[in-house]
Each structure stands twice: as C-alpha cells, then as structure tokens.
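Database export, one record per block. Field names are fixed; values are copied verbatim from the stored entry.
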Amino acid sequence: MSPLETKVRALFDAYGQRADNALQNPPREDLDGIVRSFAAYFVGSSPKGVMGGANDAKFREVVPTGYARYREVGGKHMTIKGLKVTELDGLHAIADVDWDFAYTNKAGKSGHVTFTNFYFVTTADGSAKIFAYVTPDEDRAMQEHGLV
C-alpha cells in the first residue's frame, strides 16, 4: 500500500468512526475531528446541485445539525462497509466509500440504507483532507425507507 493510500484509509477509518459515534444515544460527537477531516475550502455535489464552503465557524455550526437530523429520523449507526482508493497523483486520490446507514423508522421497523459517496482527497499539507465530495439523493432514499 502506498503512503497516499495509507493516509486516505486512515482518514476514513477515523471519519467513519466519528460518524457512527455521532449517531449514538447519547451522541459522542467529535466536532474537532470531523472539521479536521475537511480542507480549508471544499465543494459538494448532489442531486440538489453544487455547493461550496469554507471550513469555518459556520461549518462548525452546521455539522451537528446534520447528525441531529440523522438521529431524529431514526439513525442508529453509520458505518463504512467498503473503501476503494484511486490515486490521481502523489498528493490526490478519490475514495469510493460504501456507507451503511442503520435505522429504526417511526413505525418501529429496522433497516439499512446503503449508498456510495465519492470523496476527493488531498494530502498537500501533509495530512489527508476532503476537498470535494459527490453524494446520491439522500432525501429520496430516506423517503423510500419511511424515514421522512
């Protein structure tokens, strides 16, 4: 395994654990660790469109609300089930991350939503950081599973 892949895998080992911890009851949010996972500026694309933002105080405010929403709809666990790293050059990679979102919906039915996100990672400053991501239609998946 190359040094770049080692850094990317370590990033997502920690990021995945932090995501899962944030869904526990009570939540164990490591806001500093989550924020450190992202570059100073990053871009996201989903069916809702493309957005960009700075890793700033506003981002720190938004992160907990995202995890709170997952808990409110019945989220119990968020775990990484697969990770493929494609190196682009010595400093950049794409991480295909297969997530499993375990839930209990409002009707009391347990289930899983599985999806793949694509993360663009840089190690330009020496540590692996997410600078872009592409996600599927999360809202539709939640509707299909009776979560919203």
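Remark 1: The two ends are 41 Å apart (CA to CA).
Remark 2: The helical segments are 3-22, 31-36, 57-72, 138-144.
End of record.
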